[in-house]
UniProtKB/TrEMBL annotation:
Organism: Bombycilla garrulus (Bohemian waxwing)
Annotated gene: Slc7a10
Protein name: AAA1 protein
Keyword annotations from UniProtKB, A to Z: Membrane, Transmembrane, Transmembrane helix
GO MF annotations, alphabetized: L-amino acid transmembrane transporter activity; neutral L-amino acid transmembrane transporter activity
Membrane-spanning parts: 16-39, 51-73, 79-98
PANTHER family: AMINO ACID TRANSPORTER (PTHR11785), ASC-TYPE AMINO ACID TRANSPORTER 1 (PTHR11785:SF73)
Length: 133
């Protein structure tokens, strides 16, 4: 979110749309790859919708063509899109992967979550830690 705000202040909206569209198509392709891997490694699990594997494989072929073409035609936009994605890696390690955080870090994360919920009206904020309840 912070990276998007900085880009909006520095660049134009068209460039931001290009960054986001590259990120979206990259995530769509990774999702389809995950679908194919799960169908191959765990074919017996329940799926509410099951399609022929030819459909996601065909989609993946077109996706790869479009992604390679995007990388070839606009490498800087794609590079910035990848950098935007990679800004989430430290957030993941600080917020999710790091299990034994000090209490001050937990309090900071909880207060940021509560503030974000109030600001965006996303979820009714339940401020206060779960330890208190």
């Amino acid at each position: 979110c912070l990276a998007t705000l900085i880009i909006m202040l520095v660049g134009d909206t068209y460039t931001l749309i290009n960054y986001v569209s590259f990120i979206n198509y990259l995530c769509y392709g990774v999702t389809i790859i995950g679908l194919i891997v799960l169908r191959w490694k765990k074919p017996k699990i329940f799926r509410p919708i099951k399609v022929n594997l030819l459909i996601p494989i065909t989609y993946l072929a077109f996706w790869a063509f479009l992604l390679v073409f995007s990388l070839y035609s606009e490498p800087i936009v794609c590079g910035v899109g990848l950098i935007i994605i990679l800004t989430g890696v430290p957030v993941f390690f600080l917020g999710v992967y790091w299990r034994n955080k000090p209490k001050c870090v937990n309090r900071l994360i909880e207060s940021m979550t509560c503030w974000g919920q109030k600001l965006c009206f996303v979820v009714y904020p339940q401020c206060g830690s779960a330890e208190e309840e």
